[in-house]
Specification:
The structure holds two protein chains of two kinds. Chain A is of the alpha/beta class. A nine-stranded mixed sheet of chain A has the order 9-8-7-10-6-1-4-5-11, sandwiched between helices. Chain A has one domain: HUPs (Rossmann fold), CATH 3.40.50.620. The longest helix of chain A has 17 residues. Chain A is globular and about 75 Å long. In chain A, helix 2 crosses helix 5. By secondary structure, chain B is α+β, with helices and mostly antiparallel strands. Among the domains of chain B are: 107 residues, Butyryl-CoA Dehydrogenase, subunit A, domain 2 (Beta Barrel), CATH 2.40.110.10; 164 residues, Butyryl-CoA Dehydrogenase, subunit A, domain 3 (Up-down Bundle). Chain B is 57% helix and 10% strand. Chain B contains 20 helices and ten strands. In chain B, the strands form two sheets. In chain B, strands 1, 2, 3, 4, 5, 6, 7 and 8 form an eight-stranded mixed sheet that branches. In chain B, strands 9-10 form a two-stranded antiparallel sheet. The radius of gyration of chain B is 24 Å and the shape is globular. The two termini of chain B are 31 Å apart. The relative contact order of chain B is 0.11. The chains are: A alpha/beta, B alpha+beta. The interface between A and B is medium-sized, with 15 and 23 residues. Bound molecules: flavin-adenine dinucleotide (FAD). Flavin-adenine dinucleotide binds next to strand 1, strand 3 and helix 13 of chain B. The site of flavin-adenine dinucleotide has 20 residues of chain B, from strand 1, strand 3 and helix 13.
């Protein structure tokens, strides 16, 4: 099997976010970068498939040279090849990313293309679907179980209040959800092996974005609660405050 | 002058240190991979481990093996990774992020004293037989040297080994005390005397007839680790299981301990970072007098001092790691006695290894104590984390050689290097009169120039006192233990100062908050030189008397006066604490 896994470098989940002076993005100062946690499920699933059926896993990421440690993290898990699509920074518009990825994926003749279900930084959850559309491939998102029989792919995906079972033909695009598997840790040996794998860089003309971030801000700080009084006597005051101050009734 | 102890004589301006800021990408990845494993696989089990769960602990050790964490010091031809001491220090430090000192001890006893003797002294057949299993965690190892009558005085062991009439095996009899991993081990590296005198190392199968593991010791801390006595009763050990040469057991015992000491430094470094993290979590949410307690000035001082101490410890541990790697790299790989030469290249840095152990264990002890204080009454209650940290770290000052004996080792090696002129100590002593007249080279450093100058004078101050002690007592100084300990402490302080300041000078352009790192260097130097000045004066009273004492005191005061700084440590500690609070954990 020939499998591609698209991965993204994101701030560590423990990062205490600060806003950049531009007001349009999160500050990158002092941020520890990691492989997007949902992408780990994607890499793991790809590795397991290749271990069972033979083949090769290629990791693909878009971004500046600074994202290479993340690509190496995926290689250290066991992937065999890596491609970095040159870009000065991660585009704000997911469509730009999706088009660039599709451009590169088109040339790879992949049986399966994996993604994490979303990146934990911008949380769009759009790129997998957009890539599938661009490549005219079937797509299953938020996948928690995956089986292959011959050319047929059966998956379970999480939906509101339950699960949905789908069958797809290959090639296909899959976005991975937590629960799909238990991602392996990088081993020291894996890290040493990964170091010897060259990361191919490719240039793709990036489309111009149609979406622009105007401003990011923190949610309003939680105000401390207020105890108005006790018992029925307090109700009129409570109603007044909810109406006049909180403006919710 | 590539030998240990040279920090006492080499001018600080000429020094260069190994440090974590200058790690390669690959080294950083090793650190992250180990940290991820510790926080995701070990941390959630920390309370289960503490219930004394051999199955679980062995399972986790095997998981470490799968990731390669047990094979860092094992050569590649025996399924190890042979990554050197810098990485092995990193790995131990990060393993402690699982917040189980018990597990760290199991891990360290296995990978250190339980594996290294075979790496360095095993023959081809022994290495093939044991190392792959030790690296994978299939075999768990223990190192049994101590006996009821032979603790610090390890050479006094009484376990006997007698060759069988057919010459095929030795028969061992004896009692081994306090053996880490003793209850769980699949391999014992132990020591016995042949003919009552030839101290020899043996590889013993604990399942062999006559090996009796006694009940687990009821310990103050480390409740999740195994420590028990092992009785050897007519145990037949095949002659092929002699490790190294008959009669050369002491070499094995002591060389292994050097590495053990340096690695203990790495483990308590991780412990210090945990202590900061856990104390800070608490201090930032506990309120008294309507205020979060972290912001009381007295609490800020405690946190700032924890950070300074931890930064200094981090500096000496990785410097020592780098020195060991550098020293080992010089040995010719094709030499027939390659591993013995490696062991000797480690011994060159015995002073630094012991300093990592002594300074590190006392740094964590102090931080744990202050951390507990920050918790107030809750610190004394077992539901909160500091009580356990405090109990667990207490033994760090006792095993791998007590801190008393390590202080003697530090001074003893320096004495040896002085007498054999391995270090140009006498030349430097001759420069002291000039220094007293103010002849000290100009210091032009972009950062911490005053501090480096003070550290340079501190070296002369130490050499001054050391020289007085040598002149008065000669080698008998080793028996004047109280005075010896003061001198040892000064040696420790010089290594800490010299290494930390050099690290800062070297990395100031690469760090995120140069102001804070500078503040750490300033606080450390101001306080250390003040202590050294006081100690120097006090110790002279024990060495000299009458007129000689008076004139020596005058000279020491003069040196001290040149060395003292005008640093407002209070404001600086405030800044360090504020930065820590912003970062929410040890920030470097
Ligand atoms: C939890 C735990 C795990 C251990 N694990 C192992 C292990 O895996 N393998 C192993 O072989 N051993 C192990 N030990 C044993 C440990 O190394 C010894 O306890 C230690 O070396 C001290 O020996 P001792 O207890 O006999 O104390 P002693 O040697 O009796 O010392 C008592 C006191 O006298 C002081 N003292 C002794 N000699 C001198 C001197 N010359 N000058 C000044 N002061 C002196 C000591 O510093 C100490 O304060 C372990 C111990 C513990 C508690």
């Amino acid at each position: 099997m020939n499998i591609a896994v698209c991965v993204k470098q994101v701030p560590d989940t423990e990062t205490r976010p600060k806003i950049d002076p531009s007001g349009k993005k999160m500050s990158e100062e002092g941020v520890k970068w990691i492989l997007n946690p949902y992408d780990e499920f994607a890499v793991e699933e790809a590795l397991q498939l290749v271990e069972k059926n033979g083949g090769e896993v290629t990791v693909i990421s878009l971004g500046p040279a600074a994202v290479e440690p993340t690509i190496r993290a995926a290689l250290a898990m066991g992937a065999q090849k890596a491609i970095r699509i040159e870009a000065e920074e991660n585009p704000a518009d997911p469509l730009v990313t999706a088009k660039a990825l599709a451009e590169v994926l088109k040339q790879g003749n992949y049986d399966l293309i994996f993604f994490g279900k979303q990146a934990i930084d911008d949380d769009y959850a759009q790129v997998p679907q957009m890539v599938a559309t661009a490549l005219d491939l079937p797509c299953a998102t938020v996948v928690v179980k995956l089986d292959i029989e011959g050319e047929k792919l059966t998956v379970e995906r999480e939906i509101e209040g339950g699960k949905e079972k789908l069958s797809l033909s290959m090639p296909a695009v899959i976005s991975a959800q937590k629960g799909l598997n238990e991602p392996r840790y990088r081993s020291l040996k894996g890290i040493m092996k990964a170091k010897k794998i060259p990361i191919e860089t490719v240039q793709v003309e990036l489309a111009s974005g149609q979406l622009e971030i105007e401003k990011v801000k923190f949610p309003p700080e939680k105000q401390p609660g207020k105890i108005v009084g006790k018992g029925a006597d307090a109700v009129p005051e409570l109603v007044r405050l909810l109406h006049e101050e909180a403006k919710v009734i | 002058m590539l030998t240990g102890g040279n920090f006492t004589v080499t001018p600080i301006s000429e020094r260069k240190v190994y440090c974590i800021e200058e790690m390669t990408e690959e080294q950083k990845e090793f650190a992250i991979a180990t940290e991820d494993f510790a926080t995701e696989e070990l941390l959630p089990h920390k309370d289960d481990i503490e219930q004394f769960n051999g199955e679980l602990t062995k399972e986790l050790i095997r998981k470490c093996g799968e990731l390669g964490l047990l094979g860092v010091d094992v050569p590649e031809e025996y399924d190890g990774l042979d990554l050197g001491k810098f990485i092995s220090a990193l790995v131990v430090e990060k393993i402690t992020y699982g917040q189980s000192a018990s597990f760290t001890v199991t891990f360290s006893a296995h990978t250190g004293i339980g594996t290294l003797p075979i790496v360095y002294f095993g023959n081809e057949e022994q290495k093939r037989r044991y190392l792959p299993g030790l690296a994978s965690g299939e075999i768990l190892s223990a190192y049994a040297l101590t006996e009821p009558g032979a603790g610090t005085d390890a050479l006094a062991i009484r376990t006997s080994a007698e060759l069988s009439p057919d010459g095929k095996y030795y028969i061992l009899n004896g009692n081994k005390q306090f053996i880490s991993n003793g209850g769980w081990a699949d391999l014992l590296i132990t020591f016995a005397k042949i003919d009552g005198e030839k101290l020899t190392c043996f590889l013993v199968d604990p399942k062999a007839e006559g090996v009796v593991r006694k009940e687990e010791k009821n310990k103050l801390g480390l409740h999740g680790s195994s420590t028990c006595n092992i009785i050897l009763e007519n145990v037949k050990v095949p002659v092929e299981n002699v490790l190294g040469e008959v009669g050369k057991g002491a070499e094995i015992a002591f060389n292994t301990l050097d590495i053990g000491r340096f690695k203990l430094g790495a483990a308590v470094l991780g412990g210090s970072k945990n202590t900061i993290l856990l104390s800070l979590d608490y201090a930032l949410q506990r309120k008294q007098f309507g205020q979060v307690i972290a912001y009381f000035d007295a609490i800020k001082k405690k946190f700032a001092e924890m950070v300074v101490r931890t930064y200094a410890l981090e500096s000496i541990v990785y410097q020592t790691a780098g020195l060991l790697d550098e020293s080992i790299k010089k040995v010719d790989k094709s030499a027939s006695d390659y591993y013995q030469q490696v062991a000797h290249s480690i011994e060159k840095y015995a002073i630094e290894c012991s300093i990592c152990k002594v300074y590190g264990s006392e740094a964590l002890d102090r931080s744990a104590d202050e951390g507990l204080q920050i918790f107030g009454g809750y610190g004394f209650i077992e539901d909160y984390p500091l009580a356990r940290i405090m109990r667990d770290t207490r033994v760090d000052r006792i095993y791998e050689g007590t801190n008393e004996i390590n202080r003697q080792i530090i001074l003893g090696y320096l004495l040896k290097k002085t007498l054999l002129e391995e270090l140009p100590i006498r030349e430097r002593i001759k420069e002291i009169p000039g220094v007293l007249e103010g002849k000290l080279p100009e210091f032009s450093a972009p950062v911490l120039a005053e501090e480096q100058r003070a550290a340079e004078i501190a070296k002369y101050l130490f050499l001054y006192v050391y020289n007085q002690a040598l002149t008065e007592f000669g080698q008998d100084i080793l028996n004047r233990q109280q005075i010896g300990e003061v001198l040892s402490d000064m040696i420790i302080q010089l290594f800490v100062l010299d290494t930390t300041l050099t690290r800062i000078r070297q990395t100031i352009d690469q760090v995120a908050k140069p102001k804070i790192v500078e503040a750490i260097g300033k606080v450390l130097t101001a306080e250390t030189v003040q202590q050294m000045g006081g100690a120097a004066e006090l110790v002279l009273n024990g060495i000299l008397s009458g007129k000689a004492l008076e004139s020596a005191l005058q000279e020491v005061r003069k040196l001290a006066g040149m060395m003292y700084l005008r640093t407002d440590v209070f404001t600086l500690k405030n800044q360090i604490a504020d930065y820590l609070y912003e970062q929410r954990k040890y920030p470097f």
